[in-house]
Amino acid sequence: MGKQGKIYIIGHKNPDTDSICSAIAYADIKNRMSNGNRYVAKRAGQINEETEYVLKRFGVEAPGYLSDVGTQVKDMDIRETPGVPNSISIKDAWAIMKENSAVTLPITKEDGQLEGLITTGDIAKSYMDAHNNYFLSNARTQYRSIANTVEGVIVTGNSHGYFVKGKVVIGAANPDKLGDFLEEDDLVILGDRHEDHLCAIRENVSCIIVCNHAQVSADIIEAADKNQCVIIQSALDTFTVARLINQSIPVKHIMKKENLITFQTDDFTDDVKDIMVKNRHRAFPVVNKHGKYIGTVSRRNLLGMKKKQLILVDHNEKTQAVDNIDAAEILEIIDHHRLGSLETLQPVMFRNQPVGCTATIMYQIYVEKALEISPSIAGLLCSAIISDTLMFRSPTCTSADKMAAGALALIAGINIEEHAKEMFTAGSNLRGKTTEVIFYQDFKRFTADTVNFGVGQISSMNEDELKDLKKRLIPFMEHECGKNGISMVFFMLTNILNESSEIICYGEGSGKLVQEAFEVQESDGGYVLPGVVSRKKQLIPAFIGTLQQNGN
User: Fold this and answer.
1) Is residue 282 packed enough to be buried (19+ CB in 10 Å), middle (13-18) or exposed (0-12)?
2) Is the separation of the CB atoms in 358 and 333 below 8 Å?
3) Residue 253: in which H helix or E strand, if any?
């Protein structure tokens, strides 16, 4: 199985710089200590401007987008039965199916595209339905295919030619009677009588099969050559030749090519399952996104599916995780947030530290494992710490974060203050962005007791920019409230320079919650909270504490 051992490392939806950079760094750590698995950093959402700036600045490619970790067809055990060309005979098709113990055989074109399907049932049906002597010529059967099927050799004639008109006749009558049955272009099965051979040539048949190793005299071969008649010499007896000959027709004559049910490797198994149940085929062909045939899957393969394996960084709340997280297997979690709502089936490696940034934990892991950090990764991790701690101004920031950032800045060769300024400017560049994009740029959902609420945040070094943003966001929030069962929405407009935030909110009880949690009054449509810059450490605990108190 090609899938084995690919493990995705992924941050939360609406990823921030920490989420992306920590995933990249952890993939580097795991791959360098690898146990045969391959670790790949992924992202669960759109990258924001700040992160884009950081990745460009240190020349690192953004992780690929993974929107859903549900199982896909490629996670199933795909049977790699070979595709065959449409010209092969039914007999050969049957032999291939027996050898692979397959009930379905895909017919493919030269370029690997799927052309049709044939099942053992189709072969049986063709056999039972072949009542008509014109069966072989209707199917345009090639002479060499006929020769192979009756275990014969072509004595003379064009083996690549096709039997296209005429019927199949067994020459069991008297030679003088034989002429009455034969017409031009027929195919005739004969024994060793010279006069039968002569009669067949006289009637201008297109093919003669002689049975039981019978010899054909030189004058007959010469006459056949003149008439462009093919002569096949078979080791089998007349009855066996007659019985086998219909198996020489090409599979394209009986294959199904309309309304084929095929799956793509990227299809989600939830969708596939329903189709499989409705159409009770034994096997379904699988193609890749270019339509190339890969193999087949059956209903049984749904059982042995490999779940996608994940390592989560920078989150442990189900609402913030990539879609369909329940269908995946979580192997590890590395985080610095409160313990949230994720449950795992097995015990997992869970490292959660009260530091300002997951990147700080990554730095510690590099040091613990004595791995050298490359300048580009050092740059990413340092940027993540600056971003998550608002350049050490956030109360989430610990001495561990400052130490890590200092050490990483040295390796990356950057000046923290200058880099921070460029980063924050890139990140709060709101020109030409819709209000919706700004609102969701850094938006997280939380649940306390039975209340669902959402909090967005933007940090800027520019007071006027924040004022302008407030005007735009207030009317927008109204229309976002109530989506996905969220009853209150809040937005933090954080001023990095004077270390304060203004909160605007919408939804029943939202204003009251801010007032009670922070003992502040509304002014000019918002609540100014001096010294509050961290959603995680200052806002969420105060909100959740207040909600729980009120709930009780």
Assistant:
1) middle
2) no
3) none
Please report how the helices 49-57 and 17-32 are oriented relative to each other, as an axis angle in degrees rounded to 10. Answer: 40
Distance CA 543, CA 552 (A): 14
Average pLDDT over residues 250-278: 89
On the CB side of 303, how many CA atoms lie within 13 Å of its CA?
3
Half-sphere exposure (Cβ direction) of 167: Cα atoms closer than 13 Å: 11
For residue 323, which of 308, 338, 333 has the smallest C-alpha distance?
A: 308
Bridge partners, 223 (sequence order): none
Q: Show Cβ contacts of residue 43 under 8 Å, excluding neighbours closer than 6 positions.
A: 10, 11, 15, 19, 20, 23, 62, 63, 64, 65, 66
Helix (H) or strand (E) holding 334: strand 329-335
Contact 172, 180 (CB under 8 A): no
- Residue 3: predicted pLDDT: 43
Between helices 399-412 and 375-388, what is the axis angle to 10°? 140
Amino acid at 536: K
pLDDT digits (tens, 9 = 90+) for 471-495: 999 988 887 787 778 899 999 999 9
286 and 262 Cβ atoms separated by less than 8 Å: yes
Alpha carbons 223 and 202: distance in angstroms, whole number = 9
3-state secondary structure of 552: coil
Cβ proximity of 428 and 461 under 8 Å: yes
| Chain centroid to CA 354 | 36
Alpha-carbon gap, residue 13 to 20, rounded angstroms? 10
Is 464 strand, coil or helix? Answer: helix
Candidates 135, 189, 142; CA nearest to 161 is 142
Task: Read off the pLDDT of residues 489-534 as tens digits, 9 standing for 90 and up.
Answer: 999 999 988 899 999 999 999 999 999 999 999 999 999 999 999 9
pLDDT band at 70, cuts 50/70/90? Answer: very high
For residue 353, which of 364, 366, 343, 369 has the smallest C-alpha distance?
364
Token pair 């339905």: residue: 129
- Strand order of the β-sheet with 309-313 is 64-65, 38-43, 6-10, 309-313, 329-335, 349-352
The token duo for 388 is: 């998550």
Element (H, E) at 107: strand 104-108
Tally of residues, the chain: 552
For residue 527, which phi and psi values (nearest 5 degrees)?
A: -125, 120
In angstroms, the CA 369 to CA 375 distance is 17
**What pLDDT digit, counting tens, does each position of 150-196 carry?**
989 998 988 888 888 888 888 876 666 776 778 888 899 988 888 88
Question: What is the rounded distance in angstroms from the CA atom of residue 23 to the CA atom of residue 311?
Answer: 9
**On the CB side of 422, how many CA atoms lie within 13 Å of its CA?**
13
Q: Quick one: average pLDDT of 287-306?
A: 87
Q: Minimal CA–CA distance to 317: which of 551, 13, 7? A: 13
Name the token pair of 201.
């040539």
Q: Please, are residues 453 and 488 in contact by the beta-carbon 8 Å criterion?
A: yes
